[in-house]
Design brief:
- The protein starts with a helix and ends with a helix.
- α1 packs antiparallel against α2.
- Strands 2-3-1-4 form a four-stranded antiparallel β-sheet, sandwiched between helices.
- The chain is of the alpha+beta class and about 325 residues long.
- β2 (about 260-265) and β3 (about 270-275) form a beta hairpin.
- The protein has helices spanning about 1-55, 60-85, 95-115, 120-185, 195-215, 235-255, 280-295, 320-330; strands at about 220-225, 260-265, 270-275, 305-310.
Length: about 325
């Protein structure tokens, strides 16, 4: 049940990551669209300033009509942007964005009326007023757009950073889950290359049942190493890793292929001996003892081993059999 819950959580997080991606793409798309539209508005306001200057020098009637039409279109486009951003906290003017735009539009409408009847000397002062108002609006909008784009970019980078952190977290969780499952379903201890406790316990039950069914002998040899493991006072973790590797290699070289040697605990090792009488098991114990005691592990102080050998009583359970040999080992 716990395994299913862990798998469900990992799958749920993966689905969540997949769902977040379209929203991230949509946010990026709309952000760039907004920036593109804002940049266009800044360009349009600057173009209106230039058009006002050009109209002041009294171009031909056809050119004037064309300029006025273009400016009106540009003002219409800008008015929509102004309505959308009128209450923006990024406004840096003295009154309100809509008021600044209204001043420009009013000046422009009056300017168009004067273009048809008044002379150049009268039009120029009015064109300068409109030009100043338009330039002021252009500066305000440009600053607003700059601040707005900076804000969008900051949010984008923050979202990107959070997405990367989330993706890395997902990779870590998936890797941790896979490692946990591999470790859970592994049958070997990675330090000694012997079988692990989980595999040994399963094999012990099978071997006990087979021995009782076939009336065959079954023995168990256990070995412990004093002052060894996580709470060791004399051997570092690096030294212990080397000792375990050497110990595992020696044990493997001394047993048969049918025997099952495992690391039962940090400092406790067991060898399951199918079809082996207690007498033969004691012979193996002697051979293992002599080999381990003669071997130079290079450890200071030297390793101290304890041994215990037991034969299965057909009426006892695998747990009782293991418990009996653990008592003998103490």
């Amino acid at each position: 049940m716990q395994k299913m819950q862990s798998s469900f959580k990992i799958t749920l997080l993966l689905y969540l990551l997949v769902l977040i991606l379209p929203f991230s793409f949509y946010f990026t798309y709309t952000s760039f669209q907004t920036m593109q539209n804002d940049t266009k508005v800044v360009r349009l306001v600057s173009q209106i300033s230039g058009a006002i200057e050009n109209l002041a020098i009294r171009p031909s009637e056809q050119e004037s009509t064309q300029m006025i039409t273009e400016v009106n279109k540009k003002l219409q486009h800008i008015s929509e942007w102004v309505m959308d951003n009128d209450d923006s906290e990024l406004y840096i003017g003295a009154t309100k964005l809509s008021k600044d735009f209204s001043d420009v539009q009013s000046c422009w409408n009056a300017y168009i009326e004067k273009l048809s009847g008044e002379d150049e000397n009268t039009i120029k002062p009015h064109s300068l007023d409109c030009y100043d108002l338009t330039e002021n609006l252009a500066i305000i909008i440009e600053k607003m757009v700059y601040l707005k784009q900076n804000k969008i970019i900051n949010v984008f980078y923050m979202s990107l950073a959070l997405a990367m952190i989330f993706a890395l977290l997902m990779i870590y969780l998936v890797r941790a889950y896979i490692h946990q499952q591999m470790k859970k379903h592994a049958i070997h201890d990675h330090e000694t290359k012997l079988f692990n406790k989980q595999y040994f316990c399963a094999e012990l039950k099978t071997s006990c049942a087979r021995a009782v069914r076939n009336n065959a002998p079954l023995s168990l040899l256990s070995i412990s190493i004093d002052d060894f493991g996580k709470e060791s006072k004399h051997y570092s973790q690096k030294m212990q890793a080397y000792l375990l590797k050497s110990f595992g290699g020696l044990i493997t070289s001394l047993i048969r292929e049918s025997d099952v040697a495992c690391r039962y605990d940090d400092n406790h090792f067991s060898i399951l001996l199918p079809d082996t009488s207690e007498e033969n098991a004691l012979i193996l114990e002697k051979r293992v003892r002599e080999t381990l005691e003669k071997h130079d592990f290079g450890a200071i102080p030297e390793l101290n081993f304890k041994f215990a050998t037991a034969h299965l009583h057909y009426k006892e359970t695998p747990e009782a059999f293991m418990g009996r040999i653990e008592t003998l080992l103490k």
